[in-house]
Amino acid sequence: MFTCRHAFLCLLSIVGILHPATHAAEAPEGFRPLFNGKDLDGWQGRPHFDPRKLGEMTDEDRNAKISEWTAGAKQHWTVENGELVNDGHGAYLVTNDEFGDYEFLIDFKTVPRADSGIYLKGTPQVQIWDYTDPGKFGIDSDLGSGGLWNNSAGAPGKNPFVLADNPFGEWNTFRIRQLGARTTVWLNGQLLVDNAIMENYWDRKSPLFAKGPIELQTHGGEIRWKNLFIREISPDEANRLLSAHQQQAFQQLFNGKDLTGWQGALENYEVVDGAIRCKAGHGGQLLTENEYGNFIARLEFKLPPGGNNGLAIRSPGDGDPAYAAMCELQVLDSEHEKYAKLDARQYHGCAYGMVAAHRGYLRETGQWNFQQVTVDGSTIRVELNGSLILDADLSKVTEFMAERPHPGKDRTSGFFGFAGHNDPVEFRNVSIKELAPSPKKKAE
Fold this sequence. Notes:
This protein is mainly beta. It has helices at about 5-15, 50-55, 60-75, 235-245, 320-325; strands at about 30-35, 45, 75-80, 85, 90-95, 100-110, 115-120, 125-130, 170-180, 180-185, 190-195, 215-220, 225-230, 250, 260-265, 270, 275-280, 285-290, 295-300, 310-315, 325-330, 370-375, 380-385, 385-395, 415-420, 425-435.
């Protein structure tokens, strides 16, 4: 019987999302092969190993360790008829190259009782295992492959939406996309994980690494891989994809033409090429006409070299937003040399003067960045280019930079906007989604 699912898979194959899983395929348009079908060129060996420890080694020690692992891997990895084959033992196989935002295609075929996975950015993992093995039903093997199994219990993406594995003896096709830590997984044409944040297994208090290799894990049984293709995603495409996710509930705050709907220091801002730009040498707050309590805001921003601005969160409309508003979220070219000696609570994404954000996730100066800010009660979360760089409860902050208090940090509503600071920082695609009010706290 030709089912709707079969029709869907055929359509995906026609448009190039899937590729034939029965023989070696040409790289789909925009993709390049990661495996040449002949040997292990472009790959190295590595066991389950914290990549940060590799970074701490000297070049000599690192190269020696990789050579040792690679020699061991070659005892267990072979190439047969254009397929990568592992016998279930030895070091894993890791790409020499590292990737940031990308889309990855790969076919696999495994055997009963096997257990495997795909490490992304050197981090475990998109799970592959025997979904028929009762011995592992207690850890959710019966839900099927494709989940981000090393995410915390209950976290989005840990388990797949549906069981999509083909029967043993048949090939399976993964399509995996990563935008920062935001990870989407399809298996055999079915969506299993939708834009979930992949946690940093090696340090759960930090975001997933900005870049890293793809790693083929294997243990417990033979697994075969073929048709490995990758397409690196540009910053502009990554921004569009991040912005498009569940965008229906968001209201545009900027029409791309003028400052209709905004108030404050209107004379100090201008609209250039569809973006709001602070005039050089000018400042002051540019704020929405409406006030907001709990919300999610999305926007893109572009920094000039050394650029400085900020997002005013629940601003009263006057005063210094870093202190009078709930907070000012710093917008800063953090890696510019003139900012080398700032307090940790002054860099990009920080709740200025109160809570430090993780660094290393800004795009190169002059490129557009995507940022999402979630304000819910006293908590604030900042995602930069798909990576969670700040997750803070401001009601618990008791230590302030220079011991200067922030009287506005407990505000429950206010205006949203930009703080100024004299540099020509640009903003575009500004939107907001209101969230339900926070429940009232019971009197003690």
